[in-house]
Design a protein that fits this description.
The chain is α+β, with helices and mostly antiparallel strands. The protein contains 6 helices and 24 strands. Strand 13 and strand 14 form a beta hairpin.
Length: about 425
């Protein structure tokens, strides 16, 4: 990055720790327990329902509820004991952590909490994480992690520098994430307007239909549809059938034919049970009702509903219509949520003539290609920004970036 000063090679020494590499000659390498104590969270019991609850309760996944009590008040670094591992949080507040989340206390003459937080940001947690169904780490093992130990003034400078720089990265990332969210919403709205006939496609452009062109469909979610469109049930234009069972052992990361389950691609198999272009509806799972397309030879598992359209139906018109219908709302609540073929079969849909389906399908795919291209580009940029941010944290924490003469400029800038 512009304006960043790096230490000379001759000013560095090898730390003796592989994941750290070289550090400034005057720095030490010590166990984190030299200045940090890992504390266990506790479950909340006997809460008074009438008391105001404004204190954050943290689990390994972050804040999940609020309480009127607090386990600790002040600066701390929190990190998961089991479940979500390797995502430390810095807090400076009254808080409570439950059994799945450790918190930490500090000897401020040795380690500053914010600097330690940045150490744990770059630490390779896989080294100490148990490889079990529910990953976990042990507090005493974390205390024994060997980390770099600069002087307290250097720790504070590094923390201040990274607070400013990471905030700049986070601001750019947040703007791109907001853009992606708005593009996704615009895409959904555009598709809805087109497939329900609120607009028509004329010479490749969307044109709003006039009130006199519309009629009440009699279906609440549809409202008005074009007068020359029909109202049909899904079963009138397609045959829906669940796929076939396949064992997990037969699904590989690579293979000849893609395997689709309740949430899209699961992997690959040596056999196929479908050949052609189809719409797939997720049949089971929390995301049941999602829409995917499959073409050529593939395997549809029992968790996917295969949509066999009658001849001449445009599958992109029909697939995007099914997508905006939010089929998940029709799932049956159970240990494993699911959608029945019978429920989907009996849903009403607006049905344009085949030639208009073709126009709508082609237009949707053209627009989706354009919007999805922008989304893909921004997602790629977010990944690069996150990598650059992580690289900056690493270079500052191990002392590769020379911050000895760095100061915060009062006007809000930095040297």
């Amino acid at each position: 990055m512009d304006g960043i000063k790096y230490r000379k090679v001759e000013d560095m020494k090898h730390s003796g720790i592989e994941w750290i590499g070289k550090i400034p000659s005057e720095w030490q390498v010590v166990a984190l327990k030299r200045g940090m104590k890992v504390r266990n969270g506790r479950e909340l019991i006997d809460e008074d329902k009438d008391v105001t609850k404004n204190i954050n309760v943290y689990g390994s996944g972050g804040i999940f509820k609020y309480t009127s009590k607090y386990l600790y008040d002040g600066e701390s670094v929190l990190f998961g004991r089991k479940g979500t591992i390797g995502k430390p949080l810095y807090v400076n507040e009254r808080f409570w952590t439950v059994d799945t989340m450790y918190y930490s206390t500090f000897d401020l003459k040795k380690y500053l909490p914010k600097f330690t937080y940045y150490i744990l940001q770059i630490y390779p947690w896989n080294i100490i994480t148990t490889q079990t169904a529910l990953p976990s780490v042990v507090g005493t093992v974390v205390e024994n992690i060997k980390g770099m130990l600069p002087g307290i003034k250097d720790q504070q400078k590094i923390a201040n520098f990274l607070d400013i720089k990471t905030a700049q990265f986070d601001s750019i990332i947040a703007k791109k994430e907001l853009l992606i969210q708005k593009l996704e919403e615009a895409k959904k709205s555009l598709i809805s307007e087109v497939v329900t006939g609120k607009v028509k496609i004329v010479d490749g452009e969307m044109v709003p239909r006039q009130p006199e062109e519309m009629a009440d469909s009699g279906v609440e979610w549809l409202g008005l549809i074009p007068k020359d469109w029909e109202l049909k049930r899904v079963k009138n234009i397609a045959y829906l059938k669940s796929g076939d069972f396949i064992t997990a052992e037969k699904i590989e990361a690579e293979g000849c034919f893609p395997v689709f389950g309740g949430n899209g691609l699961r992997g690959y198999a040596e056999k196929y049970n479908k050949h052609g272009n189809y719409i797939l509806i997720g049949r089971q799972g929390a995301l049941c009702g999602n829409i995917h397309y499959a073409r050529s030879k593939f395997w549809a598992s029992e968790h996917a509903i295969v949509v066999h359209c009658i001849p001449d139906i445009n599958i992109h018109w029909f697939g995007e219509l099914l997508r905006i219908m939010n089929l998940n709302q029709y799932s049956v609540t159970a240990a494993q949520p699911g959608i029945s073929v019978g429920t989907v079969n009996n849903l009403y849909i607006p049905y344009p003539l085949v030639y208009e389906q073709q126009i709508i399908g082609e237009y949707i795919m053209k627009i989706l290609d354009k919007i999805d291209g922008i989304i893909k580009k921004n997602k790629g940029q977010i990944i690069m920004l996150q990598q650059a941010k992580q690289s900056l944290i690493s270079e500052a924490v191990i002392g590769k970036i020379d911050l000895r003469d760095w100061e915060i400029i009062e006007e809000g800038g930095v040297q």
